[in-house]
Amino acid sequence: MRNRIVTIVLAVGLLFSLGALLAGHHGMRLPGNQQGYAPRQPIAFSHRLHAGELQISCFYCHYAAQTSRHAGIPAASICMNCHRFVTAPLGAIRAEDEQAKQEKRKPRRVVSAEIQKIYDALALDADLKPIPGKARVPIAWIKVHNLPDFVYFDHRAHITAGVACQRCHGAVETMERVFQVESLAMGWCVNCHRKVNAIGVGGRRVHAPTDCATCHY
Amino acid sequence: MSEKQRKRYWMSLRQRDDAGAYMEAAGDEFSEVPDPAEKGLDRRGFLKAAGFSFGGMLVAGCTRAPVHKAIPFLVQPEDVVPGRATWYASTCGACPAGCGLLVKNRDGRPIKLEGNPDHPLSRGGLCAVGQASILGLYDSHRLRHPVQGGKQTDWAGVDKAITARLDAVRKQGGAVRFLSGTIASPTAARVIGAFLASFEDARHITYEPLSCSAILDAHARTHGVRVLPHYRFDRARLIVAFEADFLGTWISPVEFTAGYRAGRQPEGDPAAFSEHVQFESRYSLTGGKADKRYCIAPEAVRPILYRLAVRVAALAGMPAPGAGAGGESAIPVAEVDGLAERLWEARGRSLVVCGSQEIATQVLCNFINHALGNYGRTLELATPSQQNRADDAALQALLKELAGGRVRALLVHGVNPVLDLPGGEAVAKAIAAVPLVISFAARMDETARHAHFVCPDHHYLESWGDAEPVRGIVSFFQPVIAPLGETRALVESLAVWSGTPRGARELLAETWPDQAFRERTLHDGYAVVQREAVPAGAFRAGEIEPVRAVCAGDDALTLALYAKVGMFDGRHAYNPWLHELPDPVTKAVWDNYACLSPGAAQRLGVAQGDVVRIQPAGDEAAPAIELPVLVQPGQHDDLVAVALGYGAAETARFGHVGPTWLHDRPTVGPNGLVGTNAAPLLMFAGGTLRRCGRRVRLVPTGRRHVLALTQEHHTITVPQRLAPEGGLRRENIRETTLAALRANAASRPHAAAHERRDDLWPDDHPYTGHHWGMVIDLTACTGCGACVIACQVENNIPVVGKDEVRRNREMHWMRIDRYYSDTGATPDMVHQPMMCQQCDHAPCETVCPVLATVHSEEGLNQQVYNRCVGTRYCSNNCPYKVRRFNWFNYPRNDVLENMTLNPDVTVRSRGVMEKCSFCVQRIQEAKFEARRRGVALADGDIRPACQQSCPAGAIVFGDLNDPKSRLSRLIAGGRHYRVLEELNVRPTVGYLRVVRNRPQTEDHVDHG
C-alpha cells in the first residue's frame, strides 16, 4: 500500500516535470504568461485604423501615459470628440447619400453598429439626444496587458526616457484587434533594462535601475 | 566610565528587576507568551486541518487566471488622471483642535490624511487620531439613513415629522436644549443660534468629556470673560505644567507639540531651549519630555500653586492671593521658591498651565501668569482658543432639567452623554423621558438608541464647513468625496427645520460672503482674519477657597481618569487602528486598565493582570467598575489612573477582529466590549465635571485578565554574553544636558565622518546616485504615535487583534520603544521610534536563502514579497527586530474599509516577511515626477509618511550623498549617533541624542 502511494506520487511528479519541460521547448507558456492574448473587446475598435491609417497619436486617447503610472483607457467622452461627427465609414455614408438622391429624400444619418455602441453607453440616440429613462453604462473593455501581481510599472518613467510605446506593446498601429506581443515577464523587463543601460535609448544615455524596489513594493 | 556611573535604561520593571530571566526570554524573537488555558493541537485536529488546507490548495490552484476589465469613465472629469493623486486642503474634524489637513485623493476617494505644512497652528503635523479618522469615513457601521423610532426612513418623512413636532413645542413655548461638543465653526454656531432663536426657551449647552470648563470659569472670574486662552508654548522660555498632558491629549496637542518643539532647538543660534517643569501624579507623555518632573498626588497641586503664587506675588510686589489656601507642600518648599524665582526671572516669557478641574486651582494659575505678565505674551486672551468650550455648570443644570422632566425637545450632536457622563443609566432614563429627542450621531451609539429621530451627520470629509479653532484663524472643510450614505450635514438639517432650507455650501457662503476670500481659503487651507479682540476686564483674583482636607491615612487611593493618546475621549472607539496603537507610556493595546505604581500594587498585594474592583470609598451604593491592574513606574503611590473612552457599545464589533484559527481568542473582554467604561466614576463637584480627586478603594476580585503589552516585544538590548569581544557596549539611548552639549560644541568639534572599520564584506555598493538615510531627533520626539498610524495607513498594515499582539505578532512597521532610566526620584522616560535601519551591511540580507531581501543601489534594504518563502531567518538575524511576519492572511472582509488601502503598496499575503521600506513608493513617485518635469530631485521632495505626520518634526529623511541636505547637516552636528553601532552593520538611520535642560552635574552625561 505504502509503496503504491509513493509510486503514484512519483509518477504524478514525473508527469508534471515532463509537462514543464515540454512547455519550455514547444512555445507553450508558463502559467501567468499571456503572450498572444487577444480578447474580443465589447467594441471592435481598430488600432490599425485609428493609430495606423489616421495617424492619431497614442497620447490622444491614452492621455495619462506621459503623466501617470497608468496609460489610461479613454473615456467615452474622448471617443465622442470625433464620433459626434464621424458616425460611419465614408463608403456607407456615400451609399446612403446616393440612395437618398435616387429616392428623392433627405439622406438619413448613418451610424455604424460599433459606433452605435458608444452612443448606447452614453444613452444617446442616433441624433445625439439623450434618451430619457435610459441608464448610462460604462464600456467594460477587456484588459490585454496584465502584469503579474506585486509589480508596479510606471508609463511616465518610460515615456520620459524616450521608450517608444511599440517597444513593449508591439506594432499596435497595425493590429485590427490588439494582442499581447511580448511576454511581460520579469526576465524580459530586466533584459531591456540591462541593454539600455549599456546602449541607451535613441542614442541618449539612460539609467534603468535593476533594483527589486524599482518595481516591487 | 565605570558601570556604576552609567545611567541604566530599562523597558519594563521585569527587565530592571530580573535582567537575567528577561534577557533569556527576549532572546527568542518568535516565542509566544504561554497561556495555560491553551491546549496543544491533537493528532485528529492536525489531520483535519491538514486535510482542509490540502483541499483548499487544490481548489485554489484550479482556478483560471481571471479576465481583468478596464472600465473607464463615460465622461472624463477634469483633473482626474488615473494613478495620480489629487490633494485638497481641508480641516481635521477628528477633534475640535482643528488642525490643517491635506487630503490625498486617488481615483475619487480619499486614502490618506496629511498635515498642512502652511497651517499656522498645526504646522504640518497630524496626530494619530487625526491620521486614523479617515477610517471613520469608510466605516461600514455608520448610519446611512435617517432613523425614526429605530426604523430606517427617508429625509422627507423625518423632516415632516420633526417640523410638526418642533412646531408644537414652539407653540407651547416648551424648553428646547441643543447639547453638543465644542463647536468651533462660525457657520454652525450661526445656524444653531438661528434655529434656537425661533423658540421661546432654547439653549445651547456645550460639554466635552475632556472638559476644560474650570479654565474658562476661572477666566470668567479673573478676567471677566469666559474664554480659554490661546497658549503659546513656542514663546515660553520656562514652562511649568501641573497635571496637563499638553503634548498628548490636552486641548490641542499637535499645535502645542509644534510650538513646544519650536521653543526647544538645541542647535539654534542663539540656541533657544525652554525649560520644562512638570508636576503630575500619573506618568504622562508630557511628563516624559520634562526637564524636571515632580511626581505628586493630585491634591498637592493646589498647595504648590499657592506657594508659587505667594512667592511670585512677593517678587512682583503684589498682595498675595486669598488667604487660607495653603496646605502642606508635597515637595520641598525651597524647590518651589526656587521655581518661583526662575519664573520671575523669565517673566513675560514663562507659562504656567494647569489641567486641574478645580476652578480655585485654575484661579491660582491665572494669578501666577498675571503676576508674571504672561498674559498677552505666552497666553493670548484677546484671540482666545475655541478648541474646548465646555461649560460644566450648564451641563449640570441641563441634567437637573432633564431629571425634572422640564425639557420638551433635546437635540444631541457630537457627544454621547449616556456613555460619557456619570450616572449614565439615570441620564438615559431622563433622556428617554423627553418627548422629542433628535440625535445627529453617525453611529447608533448609546444616546442615539434613546432618540426618537437619528439624523446622521456627514463625516467631515464629506461636507462643507468651517472652523475657527483660535479666534482669527479660519479654515474650511471641503467635501473630498460624495456622501457615502443618505446622511445630511447638521447645518442643513437645522436649516430645513428652521424653514429656510439651504445647502451647507450656501450657508458657508453666507458666513463668508467674499468669494475671493473663500477661494483663497480653500486653496491655502486657512486664512487669518481680523477679529475684534475679546474685551478682557482688569485682573481680579477674588477669594480663593481653602483646600479641602485630604483624608490621609486611610487605605483608599485617589482616582485619576485620563485620556489615552490614541483613544482621546473615546469618540473614535469604532477605530481599530487606534485600539491597536500601543499607548505611548504603558505600551498596552486594546484595553483600559487601572494603573498603579509598583509601591501601591505591592501595598495592595496585586500584580499586573489581576482584576480589581474600583469602588468609591465611603459610598458603597456608588457604581463600581472592574479593571485589570497595570503596574506603572513613575506614578504616585496614592493614585489609581484609569483611561476614559473605553467600553463603548460600538466596540462590540471587535469580537472577531484579527485572524481566525484554532487558538484565536476574542479581542473583546468578558463584557463583550473593548475595555470598561470608567465614566460612572466621574463626578460633579464645585461646578465642574471632575476627572480627578475621587477617593476609591481597590478590592481584588481574584480573577485575572491578560493584557497585551508590546513593551517587551522586539527588544534590541544585546545580552552581555553576546556582546562583541572587547567592543564598547553602548546604550541604545544617549542623553546629554544642554550645558554639556554647549560645552562640548565649544571645546571639541564633532568628527563629521563616522569611523569606518574593517569588515568581512566587500564594498560592492558604491552608492553613486542617491543614498537614502534618516535621522530622528530624540529631543523632539514625544512618542505620540502619529508616525505609527501614518505608516499603517500609508503601507496597508493590517490590524491583528489583541490576542495576536499578545503573541508578539503585531504588524506595525514602526514601533516606538519606550525606555525608563532610573536616576533621580522618578524614572526618566525616553521614546525611540524604531523601524528598519536600512543597514549598509544588513545582516538580514546575508541569511535569506532565496534572495528575497537584497540591497539596492540607493542603499535601501529591499524586501521582495513575491520571492519570500517565509523562513524568518532574516528576522532572526535582525539586531533591531524590525521585521514583521505575516502569520495569516489578515481578514480584510470589510469591502468599504478597504477603500483606505493605498493602491501604491502591495497588500501582503500570508507567509511573507515585511518591514519598513522607507516609503519606497514615495521615493519612486518623486523620482519619476522630477524626471518627467526635467528637474533635479530637491532635498525635502521625498517625505516618508512618518516624517510627514510628525507634529514635532523629529524625523528627517534625505540623501546622505548630498552634503547640503538637511540630513547631512544634522549628521555632522554634535548629537548624532547610531543604535548598536558596535555591530558594524552600518545603519543609515541615525538618532540625535536626547537633550535635557538640566544642570550638567545632575546626571551622568554620555559624551559619545
CATH class of the largest domain in chain B: Alpha Beta
Q: Classify the beta-strand content of chain A into a percent band.
A: under 5%
Q: How much is the radius of gyration of chain A in Å?
A: 24 Å
Range of strand content of chain B: 15-25%
SSE order of chain A, one letter for each helix or strand: HHHHHHEHHH
Straight-line distance between termini of chain A = 48 Å
Q: Which value, in Å, is the CA radius of gyration of chain B?
A: 28 Å
**Largest interface (CB < 8 Å):** A-B, 45 and 36 residues
Number of strands of chain A: 1
At CATH level 2, the architecture of the largest domain in chain B is 2-Layer Sandwich
Q: Quick one: biggest sheet of chain A?
A: none
Mean pLDDT of chain A comes to 87
Oligomer: heterodimer
What's the arrangement of strands in the largest beta sheet of chain B?
7-6-20-19-18-8-9
Structure description:
The complex is a heterodimer of chains A (217) and B (1008). Chain A is mostly helical and 217 residues long. Helix content of chain B is 26%, strand content 20%. In chain B, the strands form 14 sheets. A 7-stranded mixed sheet of chain B has the order 7-6-20-19-18-8-9, with helices on both faces. In chain B, helix 7 packs parallel to helix 17. Chain B has 1008 residues and is an alpha/beta fold. Strand 1 of chain A pairs antiparallel with strand 2 of chain B.
How would you concisely characterize the structure shown here?
The complex is a heterodimer of chains A (217) and B (1008). Chain A has 217 residues and is mainly alpha-helical.
What are the key terms here?
heterodimer, A: 217 residues, mainly alpha, B: 1008 residues, alpha/beta, Alpha-Beta Plaits, N-terminal domain of TfIIb, Rossmann fold, 7-stranded mixed sheet, 6-stranded mixed β-barrel, 29 helices, 45 strands, 26% helix, 20% strand
